[in-house]
Amino acid sequence: MRGGTVTATPRPGPPAAHSLWGHVRSTLILLALMTLVAGFLYPLVVTGIAQGIDPSAANGSLLYYPNNHTLAGSSLVAQNTDAPYLFWERPSLTDYNFTGGAPTPPGQTEPGLAALINETLQYMKEYGNFTVNATLPFWWVAPSASSIDPDLVPEAVLVQIPRVSAHTNLSIVTLTDLVNSHIVNPPLPYIGVQYVDVLQLDLALLPMIGR
């Protein structure tokens, strides 16, 4: 107070609004950090952990032909095998192409249903030459959800033994023992079913027939 007057101290005003450049800079920094973490650091950490736990699975579960280092494929992907001396995979709606995704199975009024039925009948006709009154398991005449599933229930593999035996001169007993040795049990009882990876089975069969 001076001379009876009061000098008021001005109050600070509201903070200045953020500038456009401030918003842009913050966005770019956040984008760079998220790209670094999600695009590089996270994949590296996950890959490192997977390589330490199961290197084979981390590298794609690759399989090789017997007695050499030629890549045969992945144990996770079926192949279009129609050689009569080998065990066959399930039918595929994508011709075993895993890059395009599996279409929805055709309905009763779709033209694709006739092609699928014809393929199933061809399977049955092939078996009519070697098996009397054979009952074909559903897994073997119907495509899987992905159309590239390499696994079959044991019944769908065992029913193929007469054809394979006729084209390889291997006995029914020998082939049955081979199939039984490749049956994989579910990880927990009553959760899942037994299955056979057909690609691995065929790779084990090739040396037995000199191929």
Properties at a glance:
211 residues; mainly alpha; 3-stranded antiparallel beta sheet; two-stranded antiparallel ribbon
Folded structure, characterized:
43% of the residues lie in helices and 7% in strands. It is mainly alpha-helical. The longest helix has 34 residues, at 20-53.
Task: Chart the SSEs and their pairings.
Blueprint: H1 20-53, H2 55-58, E1 62-64, E2 71-74, H3 112-128, H4 138-141, E3 151-152, H5 154-158, H6 161-168, H7 172-181, E4 183-184, E5 195-197, H8 198-205
Antiparallel strand pairs: 1-2, 3-5, 4-5
Task: Report a brief summary of the structure.
This protein is mainly alpha-helical and 211 residues long.
Q: Could you describe the largest sheet, including whether it forms a barrel?
A: 3 strands, antiparallel
Q: Segments where pLDDT lies below 50 for 5+ residues?
A: none
Distance between the termini: 109 Å
The percent range for strand residues is 5-15%
Helix percent reads 40-55%
The helix/strand series, from N terminus to C terminus, equals HHEEHHEHHHEEH
SS elements, strand count? 5
Question: Taking strands numbered 1, 2, ... along the chain, how are they ordered across the largest sheet?
Answer: 3-5-4
The average pLDDT score comes to 76
From the spread of the alpha carbons, the general shape counts as elongated
* Global structural class: mainly alpha
Rounded to an integer in angstroms, the radius of gyration calculated over CA atoms is 31 Å
Number of helices: 8
